[in-house]
Design goal:
This protein is mainly α and 127 residues long. Helices cover 42% and strands 9% of the residues. The chain is built from two helices and three strands. The longest helix has 30 residues, at 6-35. The protein is elongated and about 75 Å long.
């Protein structure tokens, strides 16, 4: 078995600490970028609105006529969201439309024209 002298041991220990610090910093950078990305925020907001519409439908046995209905109390139920939650990260109101009795779509458009309609592929039109 090879013996490791004290100075070699200390060098390795410092290297491990430096590597750990680098990994923690990289994780922090990735997390910070994700938290401040409006595309991530808009998808989170769409999920909240999607769930609120489902709760509204369960309580009232019909889809709301508009997203504004989610901010009001009806038949002792609600409100389901705060008015500020109807605004996307770019300051515009989310768009809502019913789909021929088969669901609804919640969407918005970023300043550069990217459409966020929830879901991907086949599911994109079901939100």
């Amino acid at each position: 078995m090879r013996k490791i002298n004290l100075s070699e041991f200390m060098k390795r220990r410092h290297l491990v600490k430096i590597m750990l610090i680098v990994v923690v910093v990289l994780i922090g950078i990735v997390y910070f970028r994700m938290e401040n990305d409006p595309r991530v925020t808009v998808k989170d907001q769409q999920s909240i609105l999607y769930t609120a519409v489902q709760y509204y439908e369960m309580d009232n046995l019909q889809l709301p006529d508009s997203l504004d209905a989610l901010t009001e109390q009806k038949n002792g139920k609600g409100p389901y969201v705060k008015p500020g939650e109807l605004i996307d990260p770019w300051g515009k109101k989310f768009k809502y439309s019913k789909k021929n009795g088969l669901g609804f779509i919640i969407s918005t458009t970023s300043p550069d024209g990217e459409v966020f309609s929830g879901g991907e592929g086949f599911d994109a039109d079901l939100w």
